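Support reply, case 0932

Customer input (verbatim):
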Amino acid sequence: MNQRIVSGLTLLAGIAIGATAIQGLHAQAKPPTYAVIAIRKMNDAEAFKTVIAKGPPAAEAAGGKLLIRTDKVTGVDGAPPVRFVLIAFDSAEKAQAWHNSAAQKELDAIRIKSTDSLSFFVDGM
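Our regenerated output:
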């Protein structure tokens, strides 16, 4: 009977240690960061075509994953943007590095001149 108790306690101790280790790993994981770009009004569609063509490769080169890129936005409350983009990055540092890259600076300058738009980061969960 003593051997059964010892085996049971060993099993419970192993489960507790494993659960603690997994919780610690989850606590260390950084949440993703999302880059959000909402185009409210298109001023120069021809110039904006450069952003459409070069934007995804610039984001992917910086470790971003394009999740949403559409002009099919349905307004629920207020005026919806005419175009919406959502890019996921593994961390805020990667998102900031993408934003600061020469390729993205060039595309942002074109986007700002050719549209009325918003661009910002959101931390995920």
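We compared this against your earlier run and they match. Two observations from our side: The chain has a mean pLDDT of 88. The beta strands are 33-42, 65-70, 83-89, 115-123. Please reopen the case if you see a mismatch on your end.
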